[in-house]
Structures are given as structure tokens and as C-alpha cells.
What does this fold into?
Amino acid sequence: MIETVTRKRIEILTDTALVKRVTSAIDSAGITGWTITPVSSGKGRDGHWREERVMGTDKVFVLTIASEEKADALAEKIAPLLSSHGFLLSMWDVQVIRGERF
It folds into this structure.
């Protein structure tokens, strides 16, 4: 049987213009990788929204997987931006193979 390890999957919804700040926080938390996925539309507390490349408010998901300690460090670094910039951060436990890579 293949052995798995519990890690944290982290998703951060942010404006494309702020991706560098998010990925820098990921890097400084000691997390070794991330993936960026475009988001075309959604709905939140303030209603519907769609990508807006002209205004520079199109959104992306930044996805990463990390140990609990590194995930907590990232959350601490990102927390001030959650309110000031309207980021959304979610994390949950996932099972991964080759846990040493995360």
C-alpha cells in the first residue's frame, strides 16, 4: 500500500495585480512551490463579479501545499492583506504521496 502524509492545501483568491505579494509570502514562509489559476467570475458578499482586465481587477487562485507549520507561517504573513485587499484564504488537510516534497 502507498503511504500518504497529511499536509495543508492552501488556496488564496487575489487580484492578479497582487500575485507577486502573495507568491513572495509563500516563498518567505519556506514553501517550495505554488500554482496560479485564472478565475473568470464569481459571487461573494458584495455580489457578482467578473474578470476585468482593463481595470486590472481580474482574479486568480494561488494554490500551494505545505506542512502545517509552513501553512501557519503563511497565514500569519497573509493575514494583514485579507482585510485590506479583500483576499480569501482557505486551507484544509489533504493526503499526499511523497510528503517530503511539501
Observations:
- Helices lie at 19-28, 68-85.
- The CA atoms of residues 18 and 85 lie 9 Å apart.
- The chain has two helices and six strands.
- The chain has a mean pLDDT of 87.
